[in-house]
Amino acid sequence: MEAIWLYQFRLIVIGDSTVGKSCLIRRFTEGRFAQISDPTVGVDFFSRLVEIEPGKRIKLQIWDTAGQERFRSITRAYYRNSVGGLLLFDITNRRSFQNVHEWLEETKVHVQPYQIVFVLVGHKCDLDTQRQVTRHEAEKLAAAYGMKYIETSARDAINVEKAFTDLTRDIYELVKRGEISIQEGWEGVKSGFVPNVVHSSEEVVKSDRRCLC
Amino acid sequence: MFGRSRSWVGGGHGKAARSIHSLDHLKYMYHVLTKNTTVTDHNRNLLVETIRSITEILIWGDQNDSSVFDFFLEKNMFVFFLNILRQKSGRYVCVQLLQTLNILFENISHETSLYYLLSNNYVNSIIVHKFDFSDEEIMAYYISFLKTLSLKLNNHTVHFFYNEHTNDFALYTEAIKFFNHPESMVRIAVRTITLNVYKVDNQPMLHYIRDKTAVPYFSNLVWFIGSHVIELDNCVQTDEEHRNRGKLSDLVAEHLDHLHYLNDILIINCEFLNDVLTDHLLNRLFLPLYVYSLVNQDKGGERPKISLQVSLYLLSQVFLIIHYAPLVNSLAEVILNGDLSVFSSKVEQDIQKNSAKSSIRCFIKPTETLERSLEINKQKGRKKVQKRPNYKNVGEEDEEERGSEDNQDDLDKTKGTEASSKGIRTSSENEEIEMVIMERCKLSELSISTVTEQNTTDEEKSAAASGSEITNWNRPFLDMVYNALDCAEDDYYALFVLCLLYAMSHNKGIDPVKLERIQLPAQHAEERNSYNHVLAEGLIRIMNYAAQPDGKIRLATLELGCLLLKQLVFSKNGSIIKDVHLACLEGAREESVHLLRRFYKGEEIFLDMFEDEYRSMTIKPMNVEYLMMDASILLPPTGTPLTGIDFVKRLPCGDVERTRRAIRVFFMLRSLSLHLRDEPETQLPLTREEDLIKTDDVLDLNNSDLIACTVITKDGGQVQRFLAVDIYQMSLVEPDVARLGWGVVKFAGLLQDMQVTGVEDDSRALNIIIHKPASSPHSKPFPILQATFIFSDHIRCIIAKQRLAKGRIQARRMKMQRIAALLDLPVQPSTEIVMGFGHSSAATAQHLPFRFYDQSRRGTSDPTVQRSVFASVDKVPGFAVAQCINQHNPSPLSSPSPSSGSGSTGRCDSVTASSTSTPSAAQSPSDDASAPEQPQMTISGQTMLTDETLSAVSKSSKNAVKNSDIETANLSPSLIPAQQPTISLITDDNTDALSVESLTLVPPVDPHSIRTFSCILQSSLQSEVEVCKVKEVEEECSD
């Protein structure tokens, strides 16, 4: 039983170590917060289907680059073959918030001249008492980079679904409008098995993909 | 299927975690496995669930209970896994098992646990298991599994994977078979695995890699890269109207991926691997395909070729990314100094050995697939018949052995080359293939050594040539590079050449001696006194073309040209540029001034564009690496923005873009010119941060005009502030508690970016928005202030509105005047003066409404002087004339000669006088202006223009301006430092139209004093501005 999906989006999750990238991915792909091991159980890649509109499913392939950062060529390839990403920081760790800019710069270096659609995620929002980054300043930063901001908690399953689905919807809109288009040799977006002809009108025009600048 | 794969952790059936994570539970799981050794449709789910649970217990045991591992090993539980796999139990089980193993190995943290798991070769059995790789999921999880394992490799664990005795290294050899898999993620994983393997410093293993796998792998890899390049080239050549850009950008990105990967291997710095890789890259790809295509652009011929632009572009990328010295030096040597013989000389040298005409440096397909080569090698390894390793390459053992090998090679050679010259054919005879490969390696080894030989001889030669003269050797590649610099038609190729030269000279691996050959200094070169004239002239020509109205030079090309020229002519102790070159450059700069003048308009937008371009140029300086990542420059330069190509990488389209381009050309050439003359930039940017009032500055506001108001911000905040208007800024201050009459700035914003609107139903209120100038042309301006100001009554409100509106106009006008001065255009007086100044100066001078500290600060560099000037300006209550004198006499910098005091008063008066002149009177001097001996008269004419006549006269005066510029070209006035927008002092002497009064007060005509007075003039001009403003406010209030 092959799941039928309209598109496959490849996403990356980046951010400082310890911000909870793996937990977030795990929570999303399995619906369960991994308590089994500490340090967190590493994941390599997971995929899941998301239904953004009735009958329209998108397959998300989520990559965690943990462990490969040593080689520039590898990181580069990961970034380049992703259409979107979650940029995580830990709301209880100011440093991880300050590094958001570094992460964006790093991405920029790798994907020039294209861009990855990012959503800024303030993680561990269940630990509100230890908060070191206010929602306001995070929203301001996100606005400055033209991103959305969302606060999540993998432990309490707050907004985890929403973070991924919102991002997926945004990307889907861009794909639909032809601002991101499928390109042979690029695996950020792949066209899936279209169940019937209903969607044919939405087939993407092959145009200047990904160039959102 | 992924739905089912959830919940591997924790069991998820409501059972307490405690009971699941225990040795007992593992024992139970073992029991389940023993009962279900055969996979059937019925127990499939149970088995998968069991494997999952076992994995979970193992991860738990890794951290909590080592007895778990003991039991696992004792019972050989891995065998069950293998057994399940081998039953061809279908995709579902395969995927689950691979994923579970993946998670298991990823999460094992203790070395000992890992050793347990790896100890009895079961993992290797799983690696070599023939999965159904046509299944995407299986492929993905399989390669992920290998990657996870490779991340666990180190000097100890490598023994579990690499078997020295059997020459087996399944993890590596199985992985590299997928090096050209269509899925890029699989390829990435393969690269990760290889890099992780090379990184392990285990000599026997690395020797195995080199001897058994390096040649097949690298030759196939190089072929794979080359095939992409050919495809890329096709894409460029068959492109129509930029339709291929999407595909092209992917191919370019792919090439970059390759280069980064190669560079990552080279960085690991495993010497003998690098030798093999360098050899293959140079002799199988870079030289025969990239470099060879530089000269042989004629179609046809046997050798594969790519077009010139692609070749230059790719070579630039190579030099930007790869910094491995032996590779980049050999490559640079051939480009800068080699000739076509590098493609044939090897044959000549070998001719005694080998009569067959085979071109050694050739881009050809490997004779067999990688899988086959590996297979053959493996068999060879096992047959102990072999005396020595097949894929003998370089320096494994000592010299003598190599000598004996040579002899053997000679014997083999004839056969071997025959095979290779026949080209691509797969031979079933192992023996022969082996020889072919050996042959090639041998020859390339030789070729490397010849390159080094060449180096030394050439160094001697160049030393003899004593540098400066361009030798008449045959250097076709270099000639081609120089030729491509020519931009008479367009800069299509020139941009790539500049990139290539830039990349070479910034490459850390390149020996400066190599670059010295074309006298292009590396970044931090030693002292020297000559430079490459051919190159310099080429660069200056680019600048000349760029300054032409219809110049087809893209901004990126110009910027890069400027960078390179600076690098070229700058020695340790400053510029060594020849006068003649500097003169040419000045010519280009002059041209750029002329070009920009055509676009200079009084319109608001011009100022915004001018400042915007300056900002975006300084914020985003050229990044060559980014430039070379953009595939769009591979296609012929285009003008239309519809392509989505960045403005600097294409030609301008329409008037707005032409203006923007002219502005940028002006900035670049001006900056270059100043730099080469070692003069500081004193005029740009028009607004300097350090001159502006900033938040939390404490100002002396005694006698300043302040208007109290309530500021209500958008989010509802409400504060009491005093509004003060400065020349460029408005500020909101609150009283300083420490000092009476002083204020602390709570907000300061540029008047020029302000919008003031009345509030419909409240005559005491104003809406004020100040935008922060956009940091890039694409981003929206961001409001830094958006608030409603409420004043105590409507009169104060009107006054405030007046001041702000006038201040805005004035601030913009001041800046426009400064731009005019930069362009050597006649200064247009503030029409405010002319229009508003209907009354005698004596009457109006009594009221000076605004504090203008900025301009008087600008001329000075000493902070203490600044302060005092600042203070004195601030204190002056309302005596404009007195202020002119008092303010400047004590300032040492602004009054270098005793006459300056009177001069500045004189300015006040003379401007007053001139501005009272009627427009008709203004016309007469501008007629005189055409007289060549008095070019500056134009300026005096302009000073008296009113708004009404402005446009008409500026048109008529354009010719005169041009004349005067040609006359004064040597002066290049826009480069005179610290020149402020001035109303020329000289003209007063010669213009009858001016008042007698002004004649008497004007200092002698001397260019030096003109300059020194300029800032005085400026501030006195402002006084005038203030005066007329007061006037207007008065009028308005009295209405």
DSSP helix fraction of chain A: 25-40%
- Assign the structural class of chain B, choosing from mainly alpha, mainly beta, alpha/beta, alpha+beta, or little secondary structure: alpha+beta
The CATH architecture of chain A can be given as 3-Layer(aba) Sandwich
Largest β-sheet summary of chain A: 7 strands, mixed
CATH fold naming of chain A? Rossmann fold
- Determine the mean pLDDT of chain A: 76
Organism (chain B): Grus japonensis
Domain FPL (chain B): 51-198
Pfam families (chain B): CLEC16A_C (PF19439), FPL (PF09758)
Domain CLEC16A/TT9 C-terminal (chain B): 243-1013
Question: Can you walk through the features of this model?
Answer:
Chain A: It is a lipid-anchor. The complex is a heterodimer of chains A (213) and B (1039). Chain A has 213 residues and is α/β, with parallel strands linked by helices. Chain A has a single domain (5-189), classed as Rossmann fold (3-Layer(aba) Sandwich). In chain A, 30% of the residues lie in helices and 23% in strands. Chain A is built from six helices and seven strands, in the order E-H-E-E-H-E-H-H-E-H-E-H-E. Chain A is globular and about 45 Å long. The model of chain A is unreliable at 32-43 and 195-213 (pLDDT under 50). With 1039 residues, chain B is an alpha+beta fold. In chain B, the strands form three sheets. An eight-stranded antiparallel β-sheet of chain B has the order 5-9-8-7-6-12-11-10. In chain B, strands 1-2 form a two-stranded antiparallel sheet. In chain B, strands 3-4 form a two-stranded antiparallel ribbon. Mean pLDDT of chain B is 70; it is low at 1-18, 345-359, 383-471 and 830-1021. At the A-B interface, helix 1, strand 2 and helix 2 of A face helix 1, helix 4, helix 7, helix 10 and helix 13 of B.
